[in-house]
Each structure stands twice: as structure tokens, then as C-alpha cells.
Design a protein that fits this description.
CATH architecture of the largest domain in chain A: 3-Layer(aba) Sandwich
Shape of chain A: globular
Strand content of chain A: 15-25%
Order of helices and strands of chain A: EHEHEEEEHEHEEEEHEHHHHHH
CATH class of the largest domain in chain A: Alpha Beta
Number of helices of chain A: 11
Oligomer: homodimer
Distance between the termini of chain A: 48 Å
């Protein structure tokens, strides 16, 4: 039986940990001792698209956990540096999988150890009701690809493990087309939502009047596509089509950066828009609209301190 | 003795009405009967840079007020259409002076009557504590110029009247250089403040890091200057220098659009950024950053309904 450690038990981490605990030995590495204690004694309940309670190990230090073969880094991008630092010196044989938004997570992780690294983007979503209860909302897939020292076969075997646990997953020989589609989509939808207070609703696709929001959304996505083309990535899905489809679906998604802004938490701007802007500078593509969004979000973060 | 009607008794209207009541017969045209009643019975108190209580007439309909020679339209830009409509058919011999932010106020007023029109921009500021009490904070000047059917001499005589009342005022043969400097300044500082939550503080002049806010502020001002140049207006003050000076002064000004957004009120975006974008389109100058700010603010307004 495989041994998996899930580092970070927010929505995504909890969904992975609970499902995988049905087919593997799972441990959760969390920040608060109270959280670890609750998971150890009460287990982790999933509601929504599935309904069960999983038993798992949990601790606040890697020293108190068994050595895993696979570590899923499921924390937010803003916590990645700190979580990777806590793993430094541990479990050198393990494969580490990142699931953060944006690009560049593997680089952050590689700064703290020589692990073999898989990269993933996830489209599943949920709502965390308490430390020991997560609701499984959108059962869309997690896409996995090789990043450092890993191969398509490694991605395939992790995808199979995840699928056997009841979640959706798919392996790719090259994750970048999917990663970049999601990066452009996120850099646009998250920042626009965070600045306007609108969930991802039909405003984002409106093009009727010159001052309609869809023009800005399309402009941001066009800049992103130009960067991807210059970097040499052929996009998986077209971000504008993803946007139109998502806003036509009816239930308006609440982007995580909007939640962060409303809770006055630091956002993932550095790993999403920041990463896109840095790539744009590297390949010499102008991105004035993304620079504008980055400066506005960073200034908004500054307004809280 | 001159007869002046001040339409709209917010901060600016109250400051004009109270001061002018010391040298002229002043009436206030307000929206709420309770407000008119309070002004009639208790007068209008000024604190801060001056300290006195003025007696004045007040009503909710022009029919209940004596015919004035000068009407100061001191309402917000968002109320201008409604206030001008209520004056339609009244006081055809009066000179009407607009004090709204942005440009185009004279056009709105001219749509409701054949009055002679003066345009003004004001830099004074205050805090309204109650219907009958306004605090005079910044004693900067009001600048006045001819707009429709008026001359420099008309502007001069109104400026003299205002100066004799204890406020600062100056007449200009052509107000557009001042109006455009303030338009560009406001279109930038108001929208950036409203989207970030920051008052007009040193962030607005910061240029150290590429993601610093000053780059966006300067980019917005450069777009505005290009429009002014294409329109044929030579700017009075350089908006970027106004910005740097204002943020160095220490006490961070709280722009009105930020107040509007925090109170979830409709903003003056149409008369400020909207006016600038319309002029830019007319003269064929691209303003992608101002279009971005306009779309974000309008979407933010939509998020409240």
C-alpha cells in the first residue's frame, strides 16, 4: 500500500487526503497542533459529491510522520516557501507533487531539497466547513505532468492512484499547455474579481458596450496568449472560451483571490500575475494590463497594513 | 447686495453658502425638506479654518426662493442632471456656475436652460458633520472661467465676490488648462484609490520596484497628457508633479471616489474617467489604462446591485 503525505489541509489538501486514505496510508502535515489533533481523533469527513469519513495520521512536524513515497504539497502559493522549508532535509527518496496556482512552484520547492518533482494543476473545488469536514463541490480533474527528475510514467502512476481513490486525474507528458491556459485564466479572472468584488459571472463575458468588463477580460487574456506564444507553449484550452463557457454555466464561481481580498489575506498575486509578468519580461512581450492588475492588487494588500 | 442661490449643500455647497451669506443674500436649494428646515431655523455653522454661523434662506423647490443673480451648482456630478432639471424654466436671467469634477458639466446644464454659464474647479475641501455644520479643511482656491455666454469679466466679478466672503478664488480667461490638469489628476488618483482602498499617500509616487503603484499612476497621467495635447489644451500644472507634491505633504487625502466605493454609492466615474475616455476616442488617442480603470469601477458599482 502506498504511503502519501499531504502537506496543507485546506480545501484541496483535505479532498486529496480523505480520498487517498481509502486506498493508501495517508498522513496530513498541518500547521496547527489543534488541527492535527482533531484529524487524528475525529478523522476527516467528506460531504457533497461523496460521503464518508477517512482515518489518517496527522502531525505538525515531518519528524512525527512515517516516511512517505509521495508528498502532495497542497498549501496555497503564499505558504509554499514556508512549507517547503519545513520539509528541507526530510524524505529525500520521496516524489513531491505541487498543486499551486500559477507557474514556478517546482522552482520554489527545488530551492529546499533534491526531491523528484511532479507538477499538477487542479480544477476540483470544495468548501471547507471545519478542520475535519470538507464538502466536495466540483469534481473536475487534476492534471499531472513531470517537472524535475520525473517522467510521464511517474505522472501516470500518481494519476492512477488518485483515480483509484475516487477523484478525477489525468497524466500529461507536457503539463505546460494546461498550466498556461489555467495561468492566463487565473491571472485574469482572479484579479478582476478581486478588484471589482464580482464573482465570475456574465459581466466577465459582456462585450456590448465599450465600457463593459468583457473587453478588459479579453484584453488580459490576449496579453497572456501573446506571452505563451513567445515562450513557445501551445495552449491547451483557449482561456477566453473557458471564460465564456464558465460564465454561461449559471452558478457564479467565487475566485479564491476575491475571498482573500475580502478576508484581507495576502493573495497569490506573485505566483499568478507576478509569474506571468516575469515571463513576459523575459521574452520581451509587453503586458501593460497585467502590470496594472498586479500593481493594483499589491497596493490593495498594502492598504491593510 | 448680490443674491446667490447655492444648489446642493454637501461639503462644497455648504462652504460656499455659509461664507457667501456674510456678503450676499444667500439661499440654499436642497433635496430634503428636513435639511431646508434645519438650515432655516439653525443656520449653517462653519468650523475649522473659520468659525461662524451664517443665516440663509433654504427650500426644496426654486419656487420658494427669491430669484438669484448667481446660481452655484454645487451638487455632485452624479446629481447634476437631476438638479439642472429642477431648475429648468426658472431664473433665465441668472448666471449659473458649475463646480463638478471632470469636464462636460456645462453641457449637462445647457441641456436644461439657456442660462449664461461659468465653469469652476475647486480645490478647497472640508468635512460635513451634519446638515447645519461643515468643517473647512483645505483653504485652496476655486478657479473660475467663462463657459457659455459669459466672459472673463463675469468670472472676475464672481471670483471677487467669493474672495470678499473669505474663501479663495481666481478668475481665468481660459479655464481648460486648469480643468484638464485636475481632470487627469482626478481620473488617476480617484480610480486608483477606489480600487486599492489606499488614500492618496506615498504609494502613489513610488517607483522603486517594477510592481510599485507609481508606475501605474504615471502611466495613467501620461495617457491623460497625450489626450490633452491632442485636444489642444496646454496643461496648467503637471498632474504627476501635483501627485508627488500632494503625497509628500504628509496628510493623506481621502479621495471622494474611495468614499463613494466604501459607502457603496454610485461614483462620478462617468464625468471623470468616462469624459476623458470619450475625449480620447474623439481625438483618436489610445487610453487602455483609463479604459481599464473605467471598466473596473463600473463593474464594482454593478457588484452592489
Amino acid at each position: 500500500m502506498a504511503r502519501v503525505c499531504v502537506a496543507g489541509a485546506g480545501v484541496i489538501g483535505s479532498l486529496f487526503a480523505a480520498h487517498l486514505a481509502r486506498v493508501a496510508e495517508v498522513s496530513a502535515l498541518v500547521r496547527r497542533e489543534e488541527h492535527a489533533e482533531a484529524l487524528r481523533t475525529r478523522g476527516l469527513r467528506v460531504s457533497g459529491r461523496a460521503d464518508f469519513t477517512a482515518q489518517l495520521a496527522a502531525a505538525t512536524s515531518p519528524d512525527d510522520l512515517e516516511t512517505p513515497e509521495l508528498v502532495i504539497l497542497a498549501c496555497k502559493g503564499t505558504d509554499l516557501e514556508a512549507v517547503a522549508a519545513r520539509l528541507a532535509g526530510h524524505w529525500p527518496e520521496a516524489t513531491v507533487m505541487t498543486v499551486q496556482n500559477g507557474i514556478g512552484a517546482d522552482e520554489v520547492v527545488a530551492g529546499h531539497g533534491d526531491w523528484r518533482i511532479l507538477a499538477a494543476v487542479t480544477f476540483m473545488s470544495g468548501t471547507r466547513h471545519e478542520d475535519t469536514h470538507v464538502q466536495y463541490v466540483l469534481d473536475t480533474a487534476t492534471w499531472i505532468g513531470p517537472a524535475r527528475g520525473t517522467t510521464y510514467a511517474d505522472a501516470l502512476s500518481v494519476a492512477e492512484l488518485i483515480v483509484s481513490s475516487g477523484l478525477k486525474a489525468e497524466a500529461f507528458a507536457d503539463l505546460r499547455p494546461a498550466q498556461w491556459s489555467k495561468l492566463i485564466f487565473n491571472a485574469t479572472v482572479n484579479t478582476v474579481a478581486a478588484l471589482t468584488g464580482l464573482p465570475h459571472d456574465p459581466h466577465f463575458a459582456a462585450l456590448d458596450r465599450p465600457d463593459d468588463l468583457g473587453h478588459l477580460v479579453r484584453g488580459l487574456m490576449d496579453e497572456g496568449k501573446a506571452v505563451a506564444a513567445a515562450v513557445g507553449v501551445e495552449l491547451g484550452e483557449d482561456p477566453w472560451e473557458m471564460n465564456v463557457l464558465a460564465t454561461e454555466r449559471g452558478s457564479a464561481h467565487y475566485p479564491s483571490m476575491l475571498e482573500d481580498v475580502e478576508a484581507r489575506r495576502r493573495t497569490e498575486i506573485d505566483m499568478i500575475t507576478g509569474a506571468l509578468v516575469r515571463e513576459a519580461q523575459r521574452v520581451g512581450v509587453p503586458v501593460p494590463l497585467h502590470e496594472t492588475m498586479e500593481r493594483l492588487i499589491k497596493a490593495k494588500e498594502d492598504s491593510w497594513s
